[in-house]
Amino acid sequence: MNQSLLSNFLSKKIFLNLLGVFFVLSILIFGNQIFIVSKESLKIGLETYEIVPFVILKYFGDAPEILSIAMIISYTVVLTKLNKNSEKIIILTGGCNDLDLFKKTLPIFIPILLLLILFLSIFSPWAQKNETNYKNDAKNRPNYVFLKENQFQNFGDLTFYSPKIEQTERGQEIKDIFVYDQRSSNNLNVITSNIAYKIVDPTSGDVFLDLRDGFIYENLNRDTSKKITEFKKYLVTLYEASDTTKQEKSNDYLSYTLL
Asked: Where are the domains of the chain?
């Protein structure tokens, strides 16, 4: 059998199978990532228009693994088909052993290997770096100071807890809120509320927790001067975008306003 024809024959079959497998894997992984990132976008802090670019970056980061898997699968499929169609027997009868058969596929393996090296050295690090930048930018975005249910979260010296948070047209609707203020060891305050909304000032970018129908328990760690105040509406500042220096000072991180 002509060695050049055999090499071209095997390379063509592997290449065509590689394209098919790579395409199918890419569609499956890309679609799965779209679903996962869309589901987690609020948690990550991504805007809707950022989901697809973010998924593309994740895809480029995973591309070397996808290509490697596709290559292994395509090579296995081609050899399996050769066995089923008795083509491998004919090839072996013509004087080729398994090692020779592998060598005949090198024309397709070498460019794929070079492509993998290119992805691993340039595209994947670039994609992973930009993916991290997306996450960091989203995390620092004021309107995504994200509140999570069934988790104690710290904002400066404030500890927040809620067993139920729902996403509504108004934003996050928070129920049965517990807020623990640790700004001063000599003045322990606890705030409870039936319902609250996270709101963002469109001008300043400041983020507030708008508490409704609750109580403020002041000076709980003192033997005297304890105070309980009922309120209909109470505003807590979680993030002050207009004053980053003030934001970094724990004593000034939170401001309460009784409305």
From this structure: 3-140, 144-258
Alpha carbons 257 and 125: distance in angstroms, whole number: 47
Tokens of 129: 């770096």
Helices marked H in the chain: 3-44, 51-84, 87-93, 98-103, 106-118, 124-139, 244-247
Number of Cβ within a 10 Å radius of residue 227: 11
Query: Can you tell me the distance from the alpha carbon of 141 to that of 218, in angstroms, rounded to the nearest whole number?
Result: 32
Separation CA 78–CA 65 (nearest Å)? 20
Contacts of 46 (CB under 8 A, 6+ apart): 37, 54, 134, 138
Rounded to an integer, what distance in angstroms lies between the CA atom of residue 198 and that of residue 236?
10
Q: CA–CA separation, 229 vs 217, rounded Å?
A: 7
Mean pLDDT of 208-216: 89
Identify whether the C-beta of residue 148 lies closer than 8 Å to the C-beta of residue 161: no
d(CA 36, CA 256): 37
Helix (H, G, I), strand (E, B) or coil at 250: helix
Angle CA 132–137–138, to nearest 5: 100
Residue range 43-93, pLDDT digits in tens: 666 777 788 888 998 888 888 889 889 888 888 888 777 766 665 555 555
The continuous run of DSSP H or E covering 257 comes out as strand 256-258
Burial of residue 183 (CB within 10 Å: 0-12, 13-18, 19+) is middle
Q: Which residues pair with 200 in a beta bridge?
A: 207
